[in-house]
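Troubleshooting log. The previous structure file for this entry was overwritten by mistake, so regenerating from the original sequence record. Sequence copied from the archived sheet and checked twice against the printout by T.R.
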Amino acid sequence: MRMMDEQPPSKRRKFNFTNVQFKDRDKDRDKVNKLREERKKLPIFPARSRLVQEVRKHDSVIVIGETGSGKTTQIPQYLLECGVHHGKLIAVTQPRRVAAITVSQRVAQEKNSEVGTLVGYCVRFDDMTTDSTKIKYMTDGMLLREAILDPLMNRYSVVILDEAHERTIHTDVLFGVVKAAQRNRKKKGLKPLKIIVMSATMDVDHFSTYFNQAPVLYLEGRQFPVQVLYCCEPQSDYLFTSLVTLFQIHREQPAGQDILIFLTGQEEIESAAKSIHDISRDMVGEAPPLVVCPLYAALPAPQQLKVFQPTPKGSRKVIVSTNIAETSVTIHGVKFVIDCGMVKAKVFNPHSGLDLLRVVRVSKAQALQRTGRAGREAAGSCYRIFTEKQFESLKDNTVPEIQRCNLSSVVLQMLALGISDIIKFDFMDKPSIESIVCALDNLILLGAIEKKDKIQLTPVGRKMSAFPLEPRLSKVILMAKEYHCLEEILSIVSLLSVDSILFTPHSKREEALAARKKFISSEGDSITLLNIYKAYKGVGGNKDWCRENFINMRNMKTALEVRRQLRDIVQRQQLPIQSCGQDTTAIRRCLSTGFFMNAAELQRTGDYITLSVRKTVSIHPSSALFQCKPAYVLYNELVQTSKCYMRDLTVVDPDWLSEAAPVLFKKKAAAASVT
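Regenerated output below.
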């Protein structure tokens, strides 16, 4: 027998051992077995057969279970394993994309499969499913868009509406749509559509009544006792009081017991994190070292991941977070929660037509969710930065988003679904008639709908409904054809559709602003964003370049994916993708065709007045135009803090606004001349 080494050198096969990977079947088997044992230890496991039995028996079921009971990951698997799905898809909706993605990854692990095969997810601009997918985690907005093409939801046998207490605008419409699909399938003699509504806290009677007296199943959760402590007196500065409370706990409690502080937004969190760093430096030797971890949506991914890393021995981790930590993610090691009692929420006033992002009081349901974070793994404590009397005065549940937001986007989707009588739609909690009328008026001004015998979509409106965007952004994309700048508009709209691509750490603020100067345009933030996008493409998405220029690489990559999918929709609509080159005037004129309702005029006082409702507003300090005073600007959103600020600005000419909406600005001019 000739041995391998006896072959001539030219005939010998060379192996690159550094690149060859071998699968360890025993290791994989051990991992699967470990996950199987973990599943059996979950509080939901003893209720498995009863749950399946109730779902078989009833068309709709309400499930209440503590965070950590396993309802989100296990119930879809139980239904799949017991054949309740009848070979069709099981949809599990989530209010937030991060939850849809992370939970699908966990369930795929438990099923020993890759994400996108048996278990997948579908969120805006990211679809990880195949023909073999049976459990599909998705945002409520994505399922709603699917219903436009298939109102009976024929692909699905079960729809699980998770975190129902959050009552997002899409979830509320989805309640009515899946209920109608269930009813119509029954009428047509088709296989039934099972509806499961899940949450940790919600008004169960309200939900049960809406879903035809659906039975309510209570799961015993993995909730440890939590001591709740209130302030003795109302606090005027919740941020300062939160920090005082933090250091009071820090001095008294041993290392290894982590603290979660709920605040309202990025700027507040960055300010608090800096203060914590500064104060803790003066406490060396008095208390354990502190590891401070901010957590908010716009934070770059590597820094978000620090939250989930084990706390170094002998130290204490302090997580300073928005309400993203209420339900979407579980952070291990948290023993204490400090709840400021406030949250940033969108509030729409149909009389003024203004959609403001402002800080408001939490509901009792939100406060309870936050408290539960301290009892995830052991007994804990929750310090509420408000009095017990103030807690009792809170609303029981969060006001549904549908009752406090601009409805233009959802009304457009409902019309695309064939629902023409919006006012008579079976909402669980009806929005005001004023809000619906305001949305219809906005869509008429955008040319998306018309009133004949009934309200109906125009050809432009039908095209707008194909985009998973706000109507004004969809209109801008469609109008880019006229201004030969679709290439640039796709980039700007993509960047406006994701969390901020700009990252300004509190400790390096001056450095970040200096790095950003080379991109700033005197024509506004939209052109500044376009300059950053072009530069990013020019360096091939280089990671070091992003770090040097304080660009959030994860959000930039998301924007590129958004752009790719918008480009696909545009190509299906056969719109010519042209570039205007250096002609930024064409871009700004195009933006005015969708944003004319968000226009403001400079006053002699130095402030601005919105042209729609004559409200005093100011330019946000983060804007490229903060040191400038152009006569007319468009804004993307208003943020209410100490002042009402405009964000994402574009300099425009007043004549462009009159061209975009002659009827609206003729009325405004007439009204102004009368006054």
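The first strand starts at residue 60 and ends at 65. Archived copy saved in two places this time.
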